[in-house]
Amino acid sequence: MPYIDWDHTWEIGIESIDNQHKMLVNLINKLYENIVFKPEISKDELLYTFQELYDYAQYHFETEEAFIKAHAYPKLELHKKSHQTFVKKLDELYQKFEGENQENLKELVLSIFNFLKNWLFSHIITLDKEIEVYLKEVSTETPVEVNLYKLYGFLSKNESLEKLDQLIKRGEAKTISFILFDIDDFYLINLRYGFDVGDLVLEDFAKHLYKNLKEDQLWLAKFEGDRFGILLTDEQNFLKTFSTIKKVFQVTENYQFTLIKNQKVEIIRFNISLGLVVYPKHGKDPKDLLIKAEIAIKKAKEEGKNRWVMFSEEYYVEIKKLDRIKNLLDEALEKELVFPFIQPIFSAKTQKIIGGEVLLRVFCEEEKRFISAGEFIKFALKSNYLDRLEEVMFKKLKDYLKFYKFKNYMIFINRSITSFEKFERLIYEMEQWIDLVQKFKVKLVLEVTEASLIDFIDLVFFIKEKAKQNNILLAIDDFGAGHASFGYLLKFKPDFIKIDGDFVKASFHSEDNLKVLKGIIRLARDLKIKTIAEFVENKEIMDMLVRAKVDYLQGYYLAKPMSIEDFVKSYLTK
Question: What is the rounded distance in angstroms from the CA atom of residue 239 to the CA atom of residue 384?
Answer without folding.
Answer: 44
